[in-house]
Amino acid sequence: MKKNPNPIDIHVGSRVRMRRMMVGMSQEKLGEALGLTFQQIQKYEKGANRIGASRLHQIASALGVQIEFFYEGAPNPEGELAGGFAEDPNPPYMTDFLSTSDGLQLMRAFVRVRDSRVRKRIVDLVEALAEADDETAQNPVDQPV
Fold it and tell me: What's the pLDDT at 112?
């Protein structure tokens, strides 16, 4: 009988993946740094295999972060975000976005834009595109086949 991954293991794994992508490291390179195969890194990132304390310490060191990074925004055992009434510093949509190659690429490019007016125009453009996409989804136009 196959066991479902624990939500904490999934969260920690997704944070490993996000950080690995943020520093531009492949699964192969991280595996080499840890003496593991890229397949094992994949299992960690998907939460299929639990990461032990000493291994998490090695991963944190290889990725240049403190261990706490991997637990930021983690759900508590009841599935709620930890921290009482405090707002989650990394909402799930943010973590999901930065875990994609498109999200990471967009974030990296955006932070390189120094002119605040240009950054504002980029945000306005993306918001307009998202709004237009929402309208199209609500009112689909007959497409010629």
Answer: 87
**pTM, whole model, 2 decimals?**
0.65
Q: How many domains does the chain have?
A: 2
Residue 22 lies in a domain: yes
Token look-up 């999901």 returns: 96
Q: Which two tokens stand for residue 12?
A: 């920690």
SS3 assignment, position 75: strand
Pick from 40, 64, 65, 37: nearest CA to 52:
40
Whether 143 is in a domain gets the answer no
Tokens of 14: 């997704």
How far is Cα 25 from Cα 32, in angstroms, rounded to an integer? Answer: 11
Q: Are residues 84 and 124 in the same domain?
A: no
For 51, the domain range is 1-89
Contact, 51 vs 13, CB < 8 A? yes
Query: Which residues in the chain show pLDDT less than 70?
Result: 1-2, 77-92, 95, 140-145
Determine the Cα–Cα distance for residues 95 and 14; give it in Å rounded to an integer. Answer: 8
